[in-house]
Write a structure and sequence with these properties.
The complex is a heterodimer. By secondary structure, chain A is of the alpha/beta class. Chain A contains eleven helices and eight strands. Chain A starts with 12 loop residues before the first helix and ends with a helix. Chain B is elongated and about 100 Å long. Classes of the chains: A alpha/beta, B mainly alpha.
Chain lengths: 267, 463
């Protein structure tokens, strides 16, 4: 990969270590970011931004493994700790200090749950990271196009918001796009889950009147926004399915915050 | 006559104290059934949280109007206790308005404040009954929420009606007392010129002007006794009721979880097994304490007794989970915020707390009937909480966030899930598939781990 001359580069920790280098940050891609076709686009958008601003970063590539979040929340503590301790061995082996991730579930687990098992890192979510880039002027966004006057609504991810009290970073990024941010009825600490957390993504929902993502999409559509911004791979899928359920996939788009910034930069 | 009343009063006080103490000991024994958990760290942070959330009612004001109304009852409860002090001393000493001659300038102001609060409590309790039975606030309806059917609705109604009656007794007692004072009768008349009419009860005086002197004294005594006996009975009732939150709300908030809401508690007994499995040095004892360099040996010498993985019954939960259950006042803010419940699934975080308490009370009944070592063959899981409820939880923490006194229903759900998955291997089939994918492919999906980095090939050509 690194031999080819390409505009964007994705160095791995192994590459870096081999050449005796140390990256500023480790970009933790996560399983969805690596395998889910829709979320791979977010991973790529974020990597392009990292390249664009010239930050020295690396990914684990094939050495990355699931953090164990869905296993732990479904009740399989044994499997979670197996994952966690193997990952910690890899991360500590590379002397990783700072991690950025686009997945709030990875973020929460790495930040709050790994320290007790011997893995203490500075962990930041990509929305916080992007907020920092905008504040430092490393990403310039204040020229209107292409979002000026567009109605965007933001869906709070539980594991970013309630779990870790990050409500403003994604909103600040959206505000910087010059878009018209319209809020749903249930936002921030009262935000409604997309229905995927706690392992729900990996099984059929229990019987009820409605699926959670449909309820949430109805709320999002009632704002009149034509873009639903998300900051989590699971929210992305759940919102997309909900919009399809409402037959609105032609008029309403779902984007991750990183994709919106990449679009703005023409990346 | 007076001494007879004094004896009766002291006897009533003693009986109430004895019964309430018995209840407190039983409840505290039930809470101590839970597993140990250190919630005594960070005293400054805990005190701050308690001042804000319990004393300051911070989370109640998320809904300002209801928050204000609840605050009126709360302030009434806290401040009227000063008046109860005088009433109790009067009862024991056979005096009448003991404090009045000593604090002549402040006394009327104090009583005016109590009366204002009493009137506030009375009004708010009527509005709260209206919210339940006329406005039919959704989260309080038994027709919508299965767990409220039967006793919980009666309990709520009894509490509100009892508070209304107590406040009526207090206000009409003051009014009849004022009329007796005006007429200069006995020890009531002795306070003429010392104690004026009061803020609210002055408007109730016309109700009593037609009474004979004797009739008035009888009413005054009946109201006084009804008020104080009512309070004692209510205090005992509270220990059987969801209204226990008026006492346990404070410690419950003090001992609340200070970790980030997303953090799920570690299981040190598993850490040790995983470290053994991965061939890593052991760093943790089963009780969570860190071990020194020769820890591996000492661990092998004295294998710690490992209980259940996760929780099947109340004694597998932590004591704070059990205190949470006794502190819950069934307001249903958790359930109203729960995405599973909103979309018609069986899970209700309020029911999780009520089930935990119901199970604890069942255990207590067993103790009472068959002795303290008695065990039945029931458990919280299955007999009270079903797999369908547990499986519906998205761990979104909305219930934890919504609770005005920091109760954590999610913690109980997660511990029950752990038991089902690790002890009973009862996870839904698709979860088992997810587990084996993580185990074999390092991702929850069935993709080859070797393809994990394939996305990077598209970095330059994706449009």
């Amino acid at each position: 990969m690194t031999q080819e001359v390409k505009t964007y580069k994705v160095p791995t920790m192994a590459d870096m270590a081999a050449s005796g280098e140390e990256p500023e940050i480790l970009f933790w891609v996560g399983c969805a970011g690596s395998f889910d076709d829709r979320y791979k686009r977010v991973t790529i958008a974020f990597v392009r931004i990292l390249n664009h601003v010239g930050i020295k970063f690396a990914v684990l590539g094939p050495e990355e493994a699931c953090t164990g979040d869905p296993a732990r929340r479904a009740g399989n503590e044994f499997l979670f700790q197996m994952q966690a301790m193997s990952n910690i061995q890899v991360l500590n082996g590379y002397k990783v200090k700072k991690i950025v991730t686009a997945c709030p579930h990875c973020f929460n687990t790495l930040k709050n749950e790994y320290p007790e098992l011997g893995g203490a890192y500075e962990v930041i979510h990509h929305t916080q990271f992007l907020q920092g880039l905008i504040n430092d002027g490393r990403v310039r966004v204040k020229d209107g196009q292409p979002f000026k006057g567009k109605k965007i609504t933001f869906h709070d991810s539980c594991y970013l918001g309630r779990a870790n009290k990050i409500y403003e970073a994604p909103r600040d990024v959206l505000a910087a796009l010059d878009a018209d941010l319209v809020e749903m009825k249930r936002v921030r600490a009262n935000g409604l889950c997309c229905g995927a957390g706690g392992g729900q993504y990996f099984k059929e929902p229990e019987p009820g009147n409605k699926d959670v993502n449909v309820e949430r999409v109805e709320e999002a559509l009632s704002t009149g926004a034509d873009t639903i911004a998300v900051a989590c791979p699971f929210c992305m899928t759940m919102m997309s399915d909900g919009v399809k359920n409402k037959n609105r996939e032609d008029s309403v788009r779902i984007y991750d915050i990183a994709e919106l910034i990449a679009q703005k930069q023409g990346l | 006559m007076e001494i007879f009343q004094q004896i009766l009063f002291v006897a009533a006080l003693a009986v109430a104290a004895w019964l309430i103490t018995k209840r407190i000991r039983l409840i505290s024994r039930a809470i101590r059934l839970g597993r140990p958990e250190n919630r005594f760290d960070q005293p400054d942070e805990r005190l701050k949280t308690m001042l804000l959330v319990a004393f300051g009612q911070k989370k109640m004001f998320n809904n300002p109007l209801v928050g204000f109304m609840h605050f009126v009852i709360y302030a009434g409860f806290v401040i009227i206790n000063l008046e109860i002090l005088e009433i109790i001393l009067d009862g024991i000493l056979g005096t009448h308005r003991l404090f009045a001659p000593y604090i002549t300038s402040v006394y009327p102001i104090l009583i005016d404040v109590f009366e204002l609060l009493a009137f506030g409590v009375l009004s708010v309790c009527i509005i709260f009954l209206g919210r339940r039975f006329i406005a039919r606030v959704s989260r309080l309806q038994a027709s919508r929420h299965h767990e409220l059917q039967g006793w919980p609705v009666s309990d709520a109604t009894i509490i509100l009606v009892a508070e209304i009656l107590l406040m009526i007794a207090f206000l009409t007692w003051n009014a009849s007392d004022s009329v007796l004072r005006d007429r200069g009768i006995g020890h009531y008349g002795a306070l003429q010129g010392v104690v004026p009419d009061f803020l609210i009860s002055q408007f109730l005086k016309p109700l009593f002007t037609g009474f004979s002197d004797t009739g008035l004294v009888v009413y005054e005594r009946v109201a006084w006794w009804a008020h104080i006996l009512g309070i004692l009975a209510f205090a005992l009732y509270v220990t059987y009721s969801k209204h226990l939150h008026i006492a346990l709300g404070f410690p419950n908030v003090y001992f609340s979880d200070l970790q980030p809401k997303g953090e799920m508690q570690n299981m040190p007994e598993i850490t040790k097994e995983v470290q053994l499995a991965l061939g890593l040095p052991i760093t943790t004892e089963a009780d969570g304490s860190q071990v020194n360099d020769n820890g591996l040996q000492s661990g092998a010498d004295s294998p710690a007794e490992i209980g259940r993985f996760g929780a099947k019954d109340v004694q597998d939960l932590k004591w704070i989970n059990l205190m949470n259950a006794y502190s819950c006042t069934e307001c249903g803010r958790c359930t109203a915020a729960c995405p599973a419940n909103i979309t018609g699934k069986k899970l209700s975080p309020r029911k999780i707390m009520m089930d935990t308490r119901d199970r604890l009370e069942e255990v207590q009944r067993g103790w009472k009937m068959h002795g303290s070592e008695y065990k039945d063959d029931k458990s919280l899981l299955n007999d009270y909480i079903t797999a369908e409820e547990l499986n519906a939880c998205t761990t979104c923490q909305a219930c934890v966030n919504a609770c005005p006194i920091n109760i954590n229903p999610l913690d109980i759900i997660l511990q029950l899930r752990r038991y089902r998955v690790m002890e009973e291997s009862q996870a839904p089939a698709s979860w088992n598939a997810m587990f084996s994918n993580i185990e074999n492919n390092m991702a929850p999906w069935k993709f080859s781990p070797g393809d994990r980095f394939n996305w990077a090939d598209q970095v330059n050509d994706l449009k």
